[in-house]
Amino acid sequence: MLRKIRLTLASLFFVGVSLLFLDFTGVAHAWLAWMAQIQFLPALLAANGLVIIALVILTLLLGRVYCSVICPLGILQDIMAWIGRRGKRKKAPYKYSRELRWLRWGVLMAFVGLFAFGLQAVAWLVAPYSAFGRIASSLFAPVYRLGNNLLATVAERYDSYAFYSADVWMKSLPTFFVALVTFVLLFILAWRGGRTWCNTICPVGTILGYLSRFSLLKIRIDESKCNRCGRCSKKCKASCIDSKHHNVDYSRCVACMNCLDTCKHGAISLGYGPVKKHKTDKTVEDNSRRTFITTTAVMAVSAAVEAQEKKVDGGLAVVEDKVAPNRATPVLPPGSLSAHHLARHCTSCQLCISACPNGVLRPSASLDTFMQPEMSFERGYCRTECTRCADVCPTDAIKPITVEEKSSTRIGHAVWVKKNCIPLTDGMSCGNCARHCPTGAIQMVPMDNNDEESLKIPVVNTERCIGCGACEHLCPARPYSAIYVEGHERHSNY
Hey, which end of the chain has fewer CB within 10 Å, N or C? Predict the structure, then answer.
């Protein structure tokens, strides 16, 4: 019964978190955003004390339930292991293995050390929620959208618009590569050894594993009933049950409850009370405490840029692709406050990028801000009425912002490039940038001050410009826009 309850809850959480990265309509975010907010590292970075306390209490009561129910990467490993077992004839692929404690704590120390040296982008490569987000947004989302587009095509033939097509494109090749490598590595480890990633690489697993040693309810082995058949060890996806010596490594047990349903002699149960520690539980206690305290100071980074796609002129002719300008300062989404704030709180989970309905946010390819969200305007611009990225961010890297606040937040300013402007290159009037500026920051003035009838060129009032990118996106000049947005290191308001 406990196993069935765990499987049901795990399925609900996995589907819910996955939809946050797959759904492009915004419906899932309105109902399920809390599932991202209760993930361990996002809650830690957002300083969400209630969530952290709740997860710690949950672990002290039931062990690593977080890993088996709430964490989407952990559940993904279970799915991979199940798929892997389908290709095996042997029913029991697992066996007890000793804890690689030096590796677990070494990875955690390295995780913390990377932050100390300002290499957060590397640290977030092994963060469970962020790793799953990159896999879901880079690998699963395109398949999901292709399926949606197929349904939209079929529905359209029957005069139904229950579905509508969504663009399918690669936002960042480096991010896709990272996601693919992570996925392949996860599959190999899960196929061969179940929760190997959780118990050797994952920093959250190491922290919660230390706490789970003191959990109230634990797996118990009744030595008087156990015949050392080893069935429980072979079903344990964490490889933490030593049936020969009646020991359980509680730091690696993920509370999957597989062993409860496996034992036919009733020798395994879930109980409470003092437990005799096995030999491998005696060391590293002091270091563990110090490491746990140090880890709570973790902060994040990573992200964004790389873009391209074809634009169609009036639906009649394909025009030349736009090329992103070389910005001296990246344009960061409203609510991120500053480059420093975003770097310290972003986990590179790609949720804001997946949720952006305007195709503006991209993962950065820059090494110092790798996979951190940045803005580029080849496919759209940041609409003043949209606050989707701020609404879904679970770490407060992009703080919640109202439409009114966003309309007056200066994230950058427009820069006119004289050599690309159509009135000068083609001798034709334009004014597209001024017509579509939502703040009226661009005005058209005569090219010749002495001739009011001369062609007009744009003049930018940087004090009114908010950096939304409407001018850059809608500029008809190709391949480089005649006007582009330069970002601000620190955002400001009118």
Answer: N
